[in-house]
Every structure is written in C-alpha cells, then in structure tokens.
Amino acid sequence: MTANTPSTTHTSLTESDDTNAPLLEYDTLDVTFETQRGDVKAVNGVSFALEAGEILCLVGESGSGKSVTAQSSLNLVPQPPGVIEGEIRYRGKDIRTASKNEIRSIRGNDIGIIFQDPISSLNPVHTVGGQVIEALTSHDRWSGAEARERAVELMEKVGIPDASARLDDYPFEFSGGMRQRVMIAIALANEPDVLIADEATTALDVTIEAQVLKLITELRDETGMGVIFITHDFGVVAEIADRVAVMYGGNIVERGEVFSLFENPKHPYTQGLLGSIPGTAVQAGADHLQAIEGEPPEMTDLPTGCTFHPRCPKAMEHCREEMPPNYVDSDDHQVRCYLHDDLPEADDSATRGRGERE
C-alpha cells in the first residue's frame, strides 16, 4: 500500500500469541447495561471468530447488538454502566484481562476501528492531518516528515482530493462524507491485523463507497488483514463478505458463507431481511416486497424463548418457551431456529470461523 517502510513492526501482545488461534475470537460474550428502566441485555452469548484474510459482515436491524459487540473488542464499552462477561481473544490472549498499556498498544495498531459517527469521533480543535499523524506516531512506527508524507498518502487513498493542501484543515471544513474518509484513513494508518468497520460507508456517495470497499479488499489481499464489517446494506455484503453473521436481539441467529446465506437463508428473520430488498425479493420469485411485521424487541424486557418469535410467521409453541440451540449443516451454515432441529447441534469448534483449530 505504501512506498515508505515503518520504523518498527507491530509489537503488542506478540510475545504471547497463539499461532493456531484465530485473529479475533468472541467466546460467549454478554454485555448488559444497567439503567434506571432496568438491565439492557445488548449482547447475549455471542460466539464467533475472525480468521486472517477474511471479511465477516455483521448485519441486522438497529439495536441488534452489532456496534456494542464491535466496541467490546477494544474495551470501549464504559464499565459501569456496562457489565461484560465472556472472553474476547486477540491471537489467543483475552483482551478483557489485558493491562491498560497492552490495550493502548492494540488500539489503532493491531486492531483498527472506524466509527459510524465521524463528527463525534474527530477532535474539532485539531487539524485532520494532525489527527492522522497522531495515529501514525502514537505507536512509534512513523515519525517526523515520514509520518506527514504517509498521512497525505492515506488521505489520497480514501479519496480526499488535494490531500496535501487539506492536511491542515479542521474537521468543520470537511463535509460529513469527507470526515468519514478521514476516519477510515486513521483506522488504516498502521495497517492493522484486524479492521472493524462500523457502518463505515453509510455517509459516502456510491462512487467513494466503491473506492473505499476496493481499498479494504486490496489491503485484505495484500496483508492478510481480517475485517469485521457492520452494515445494513446487503449490496455491500454481497460485494465484499466471505461470511455473514445475522444478529437479532443481541443474539447471532444465523451465520454462514455469503453465497450459502443468500441462496438458502434458513432463519425466518434472515428470510425477512432479504425479502425486503427489491432485487433479492424478485430473484426469490416474490411478486412484492415482504415486510417484517412488528418492532424489534424492547431490550429491557426480552421475550422468553427465541427473541424473534413475537414477529415470526412460523413460530411454534416451544419457540416461545426456550431459546433454540445452534444447528449446523454440512457446509458449516449455522442457524438458531427450531425449524431446523433435524440438523445436528453445533459444537464449540463450529463457532471458530472457516477453519477449526488443529
């Protein structure tokens, strides 16, 4: 990606890396927020893994737990009011038990994150160039004129015209889409092992969106970076994803290879999401768009059993009583739904992405 060579390589946590482990692994992650209205169960028993060189898309309605899952990866969920249980492992080491210095070293260096709201993520009293340069110099990988040159290169890569002249501008001098491009440049600055993109292209026009998606996939191909891409846009999912995880009510209700999920969605919620997209609905033979009836669940009062059953047209009595387990087919396509209880239940190794541990 760059003609320059950083002064050092990634150093955080490498001494204790497990070479057989996935890049990033979530093991029964629970995140609860204590509020005056009651406990909000934002994430409930989420388990999945991200392998090197793969793009995993997290999809689902607003409030399904996607962003909280992502922010938990870097200890960005405030505690309190958040209460986090379970493990999040980077290269085999639990991030939740890492020291503050280790977490500081991981952020932006090993794991980069693009937030969905750039106006609240950029510091208004510092130039955009200064903030990109800070991301480069804070981990002692770049310095001086080299860092400034690299910042210009990054801003050009994400589609900011006349980047060298705009380096000394402030965030208020940029449009919303341009600010988002700056955030993407900051996240990619140190070529992290893991990139978490939370609605990263929502504020961009389709031309720049295509350019950014191309940049992310090229970086993945060149460096083996793993990507968690959070989006509502199934067009983006179809374009870049290797695997897809569908979240609802704090749970992952379905996950699998992207082609398997599009061609054979198993969970009624996934079927409803795809059926509400014009092109996908036509391909599936529907003569009209399908709406998912009802509203997402109140997170302070989740329904018993399957959290989707109040909106599910196929709900059965035992769906209302107990949360179904994960069932898995021969293609490692997993679904949390009693409609597929003829399939075997997934074991622990089935949550570890495309490759099981040796």
Descriptive report:
- With 358 residues, the chain is of the alpha/beta class.
- It has a domain at 246-351.
- The chain contains twelve helices and twelve strands.
- The chain has helices at residues 66-72, 100-106, 118-121, 128-137, 144-157, 163-166, 176-188, 206-223, 234-240, 258-263, 268-275, 278-283; strands at 24-35, 38-50, 55-59, 82-90, 93-94, 111-114, 194-198, 226-230, 243-248, 251-257, 327-328, 334-335.
- The longest helix is centred in the middle third of the chain and has 18 residues, at 206-223.
- The chain is globular and about 65 Å long.
Number of strands: 12
- What is the 3D shape? globular
Strand content: 15-25%
Q: pLDDT under 50 segments (min length 5)? A: 1-9, 349-358
Order of strands, main sheet, comes to 6-7-8-3-9-10-12-11
Distance between the termini: 32 Å
Average per-residue pLDDT, rounded, comes to 85
| Helix and strand run | EEEHEEHEHHHHHEHEHEEHHHEE
The structure class reads alpha/beta
Helical content stands at: 25-40%
Total count of helical runs of at least 4 residues = 12
Which value, in Å, is the CA radius of gyration? 21 Å
Largest beta-sheet details: 8 strands, mixed
Core attributes:
eight-stranded mixed β-sheet, 358 residues, disordered N terminus, alpha/beta
Task: Put the structure in a nutshell.
29% of the residues lie in helices and 20% in strands. The protein has 358 residues and is α/β, with parallel strands linked by helices.
Please specify the SSE layout and strand pairing:
Layout (H helix, E strand, L loop, with lengths): L23 E12 L2 E13 L4 E5 L6 H7 L9 E9 L2 E2 L5 H7 L4 E4 L3 H4 L6 H10 L6 H14 L5 H4 L9 H13 L5 E5 L7 H18 L2 E5 L3 H7 L2 E6 L2 E7 H6 L4 H8 L2 H6 L43 E2 L5 E2 L23
Parallel strand pairs: 3-8, 3-9, 6-7, 7-8
Antiparallel strand pairs: 1-2, 1-4, 4-5, 9-10, 10-12, 11-12
